[in-house]
Amino acid sequence: MNKYQVGPETVRMIALRHPWVLADRYTKQWSGARTGELALLCDDRQRPLATALLDPGDRVVARILGPPGIRPDGGWFRNRLQRAKQLRLQAGLEDTDVYRLANGEGDGLPGLTIDCYADYLMVQLYTPAWDSYLPILLEVLQELFAPLGIYRKLRPQETRQLEARSGDKKYSQLVRGQAAPVPLLVEENGLRYQTDLREGLNTGIFPDQRRHRLDLMQRVKGKRFLNLFAFTGAFSVAAAAAGAKQVTSIDVSARYLAVARENFSLNRINPKQHRFIIGDVFGELEKLQQTGARFDIILFDPPSFSTTKKSRFSTRGGTAQLVQASLPLLESGGLLIASSNHQKVDMTSYLKELRRGAIEVGSELRTIYRGGQPADFPVPVSFPEGNYLKYVISARD
């Protein structure tokens, strides 16, 4: 195992148990460092600090695996995954079979996540440094969890390469066992949803919002609920199942809303009693305002960045616009639920966006709840970058 010297700032961060080493003038001097290489990181006196997995071409040039002397072999993976499995007993997974089994840095597996979809698993490697270790990981996963199949979610650059060669966008690959049925039905909080593991990028449900969907179910009975950027309707299904008076779902994708209707039917909810609107969110909000429509609860959980023929949206700046466009449709005392998974926008900055949007329309919001990831998405206290999800419930004046 080769030794690589790190600078004083990295020494300090390793002492604080931060799992990343960022590129700096010291790492640029790592002669011969290779992606996937297991390395011993040392200070300027050559004292060993930690074992790390290298990715010298990335901004995160090394990921800390543990103290000096460890090796990511079968026993190491087995230990990490058994601990992750034990921690999930605290995650409130009753009536749920779609969740995160291993959350990267939060489970001592930096740059690697594993999601469970019923009898199937999906692995994502956020760095090619893990590629050569994938066979060992698959063996341990099969041994500990006996899934029917294991998929690998591909990195964006891998999907671009596949598309260039074949013209086909494939976001995942079956790497072990049998293929999952299409659709694959999963259960969350006692409700059923369709997923498609071939999609990989967007399988049909986002498990990190599970706790928030359960919270919504406790607030929505008898209310008029508007779900913006509805995707395949998980929040909409939860609201309708909990007794919402009417659920309106807006998304630019006809395909996603078709799945949303099917998810309603799966749960014995008549989709014809609710509204599904295909279109750009900002344009549709304007139309709804012109018709005098009003809602008791409005939720938006947009992608961090998206582009349609009519508009572009990004969390920075776009969130204030969304608040500004939504509040005229919200009853006094109604709830505005705002959510974002944009990792580079922290909660303080996000609240400023909400404030700016409310001021623009001469309104005031009173925050009554702030949330983040559920317990199956653990984050080390030494790794604030892992707290990406923001979910804010505010009451309108």
Structure, explained:
With 397 residues, the chain is an alpha/beta fold. The chain has three domains: 2-66, Archaeosine Trna-guanine Transglycosylase, Chain: A, domain 4, CATH 2.30.130.10; 74-184, RNA methyltransferase domain (HRMD) like (Transcription Regulator spoIIAA), CATH 3.30.750.80; 206-396, Vaccinia Virus protein VP39 (Rossmann fold). Helices cover 28% and strands 29% of the residues. The protein contains ten helices and 21 strands. The protein has helices spanning 8-15, 74-87, 134-145, 156-166, 210-217, 234-241, 254-266, 281-290, 315-326, 347-360; strands at residues 2-5, 20-22, 38-42, 48-54, 60-66, 98-103, 112-117, 120-125, 149-153, 172-177, 184-188, 191-195, 224-228, 246-251, 275-278, 295-300, 305-307, 312-314, 330-340, 365-371, 390-396. The strands form five sheets. Strands 15-14-13-16-19-21-20 form a seven-stranded mixed beta sheet, sandwiched between helices. It has a five-stranded mixed beta sheet with strand order 1-3-4-5-2, with helices on one face. It has a five-stranded mixed beta sheet with strand order 6-7-8-9-10, with helices on one face. Strand 14 (246-251), helix 7 (254-266) and strand 15 (275-278) form a beta-alpha-beta unit. Helix 2 crosses helix 3 (134-145). It is globular, with a radius of gyration of 23 Å. The N and C termini lie far apart (62 Å). The relative contact order is 0.09. The model has no long low-confidence stretch (mean pLDDT 94).
Outline the fold blueprint.
Layout: E1 2-5, H1 8-15, E2 20-22, E3 38-42, E4 48-54, E5 60-66, H2 74-87, E6 98-103, E7 112-117, E8 120-125, H3 134-145, E9 149-153, H4 156-166, E10 172-177, E11 184-188, E12 191-195, H5 210-217, E13 224-228, H6 234-241, E14 246-251, H7 254-266, E15 275-278, H8 281-290, E16 295-300, E17 305-307, E18 312-314, H9 315-326, E19 330-340, H10 347-360, E20 365-371, E21 390-396
Parallel strand pairs: 1-3, 8-9, 13-14, 13-16, 14-15, 16-19
Antiparallel strand pairs: 2-5, 3-4, 4-5, 6-7, 7-8, 9-10, 11-12, 17-18, 19-21, 20-21
